[in-house]
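Let's do one together. I've listed all components of the complex below, 763 residues spread over three lines.
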Amino acid sequence: MRRENAILLAALRDPASMTRLDAAGWNLLIPSARMHGLLARLATYVSDADALPDAARRQFDNATIAAAANQTGLRFEIDRVARALAPTGTRIVLLKGGAFLQAGLPPSRGRSSTDLDILVPRADLPRVEAALIAHGWALHAETEYDEHYYRDWMHEIPPMVHTEREAALDVHHTIFPPVAGIRIDSAALLADAVQLDGGVWALCPTDMVLHSAVHLFGEDITGRLRDLLDLHDLLTHFGAQPGFWDALQARARLHGLARPLAYAVRYSRRFMGTAVPAGVGDDAGPAMDWLVGQALLHAASDTPGLGARIAQRVLYVRGHWLKMPTGMLVRHLWTKWRRREEDVPV
Amino acid sequence: MTRIGDYAPAYFAALLATRGIRLESAGLALRLWSDIPEIADHLGLLYADHALLADEGVDDYRLRIQWDGALQRVLKRRVAALTDGRPFFAPLPRNLSPTFVEGCLNWSVAFESASYVIVHGAVVERDGLATIMPADSGSGKSTLCAALAHRGWRLLSDELTILRPADLQLISSARPVSLKNAAIDLIRGFAPEARFGPVLRGGTKGDVAFMRPPADAVMRVGETAAPAFVISPRYQAGAEARLTPVTRAEAFRMMVDGTVLYRTSGRRGFETACRIAESCPAYRLSYSRLDDALELIGGLYAARRAPAPVRAAAASGA
Amino acid sequence: MPPDDSDARTWRIIHPEALSWRCWDGDYVIFNGQSGLTHALDVTAGAIFELALRGAATPAELQARLAAFLGPGAPPDLRGAVTSTLARLDQLGLAEAVA
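Okay, and this is what the predicted structure of the assembly comes out as:
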């Protein structure tokens, strides 16, 4: 494993190791952590900021302030969405970062989110969409092709954005499309959701872990160490509850998520040292281990090795395969690549 | 203390391509590596008076400017800039690559939300009084700033107004001033003693050249300055120079609209903009001739040396 | 639900302790720590905002406070100004109806 990855993982698993870093070590840790969006998280582990090298303290502080501002905005968006949808009577289940924040769960420490994701009953989608539009949100499908992709293929409302605040909102009715043996029981997700403050809900612990697992291993995993860390935090936090692991595996079978769960548990233990009971998550071979390691961590090096680039391409295709049959895959990827070529990055 | 200009050019280029160099800017430690000749030339000429930091130390950012991939190492036509190992900008043709240095340094400072509130705009200082010029590209702020820097004002920056919230002091970076198209020759004529890097042709906004910051400004880079005036400049061909006072609310708006990462700066960004609006008379300046603009600005400074009337206190909350 | 002319609900400023604001010659600027957003209000909307800060009130009460505040020079449609300002403050997350 490349040294900067080892240092970053060590810092996450054993924050005290940061006190033993020399300048060269910090010069590997800071860029790597910043690349993975983990500077603010590492900052939460620091008890004596004055003992840090100046540059480390500055970069930790910058990231902490940025994360705090992001969380303020997210909390406000949750409040605004709850108020806009209250008259519809629908159950609003927060997903991912929004849920972690509102529920005060460990993954929320030092975390920034790009958008707010919510889950509502599929039957409520039309009036949810109408209520949001009445309160200043607008649909954000970039092209007709995108809108077709979302509505007709994924059966979702296209992503929404609040016209004045420019905040992104994704409204889901399920957490994964029905492919590759996966059959999410949305009714169960909603029925077993846990109520939070502010008129919103979160997935129950097993569903939250499973969502995190399929969100990571059902998609392109390149550079997504932070999402693995979320998984580790959830497994550690909920894993302490009696009966959790049995319930988790049973729930995985209900939703057809046994395979993503197995990967999630295996790689959370492998990279983050998650305490996992014996017999859970042994479902992958050494080739997969190599691919995952390369892709998950590769982004943090100055010159990505050939191995990392190969792994990234394979896993990127794999992520999409889980979502769509092969015929659609090529057209969709081609459209994305063509659009990326026309993009002029700033 | 070693300055970049202390090194022979060939040695400096070799150093830059192997160990790299460490520069300080606005209190940040920035490490740069590059094996691109144009980058070594840019730094060697335009940063000649800037001091280097010791080789060992923890860096805020590590910047690598290199050929964009294996094929380019042979063709030597396209250059990439990597921060944290990742490209932040799209690759550029070789001759435009010096803009990476300025762009990356600007962004490195822009993210310093913990230490500063940063506004997109120029800052110059004279007699202990600083003028902030919040403005977008095309306003002529860099041209005006370059002119002021050669007529008795000290250059702090042509691009980044760096405010320290605790005491509202302005931090200097004294870096090269970017001039475009006609402004290049205009300033060459206005200040014949100014030194320029090569004209970089073919960029999206036309020709760009960087003007070396006056040595005195670089020597005094550690000296902060107190904000005294806010002037939003607008170059208008044929316009008679005019300085129009604006309200505190407009001054506040100028500051907020120009604040980089304003949402991240939160209440501190708001309070900083308020304090500037309340303590600094603010104006719009339209001009076509540099001499006229400088005369008007000079007039503000001269009037300031006379005692000013006390303003009525504003209503406020929290 | 936004207010209309028949609105008799009590309105209040949300989390006033999280706000920082200034008034300069009738121009109001407000920072809301709950949202991280900054807003500019004109003199009428700003005055209504400031009057609402003094205590929860119905639109009719705010209209009365505003009339007293502005004195003889008050513009004609104060009720309209109160209604539209409350609607705007509601949209911005600065005010809410409580009853």
